[in-house]
Predict the 3D structure of the following.
Amino acid sequence: MERFKEINPELITDNVFELIGNGWMLITAGNSFDYNTMTASWGGFGVLWHKKICFCVIRPQRHTFTYIENNQRFTLCFFEEKYRDALLYCGSHSGRDIDKIINAGLTPVFGGAPYFAQARLVIECKKIYYQDVDPSNFIDLTIADNYETKDYHRMYIGEIVRCLIK
């Protein structure tokens, strides 16, 4: 399997709208003994408070929510299209019930926050801020259509501490 090399985040050449919105990502947190991952297609990259950051959003009922809450670091992993079925599987099965990582055919890598050997791009982040989505702040009221059951996300902002690419 191809090896990762560490790069500065500024060297990422992907279109971030394609990378996250269409390519999807796995958000993963935990440690080598206990970790979980989930598929996501909402999030972003930027600069905030003079730091290179990523942000992602997780609903409280997701199993991964507890792992993000209880760990200081998390990863965002991006894959080639040939791994779409693995991402679909991780997005439609809960780690509460099964070992979805093994069932999806993914190989975890430890040393920092967990990530996956099959990824083509890994962003490791240190949590620096979180905030719950507050529906009273929606200016565009159609956004509420994303929350039929009022299960509002928590947004996590992470400072990028490591970027790995193949």
Summary: The mean pLDDT is 96. Strands lie at 5-6, 25-30, 35-40, 43-48, 51-58, 73-78, 108-109, 115-116, 121-132, 154-165. The chain is about 15% helix and 35% strand.
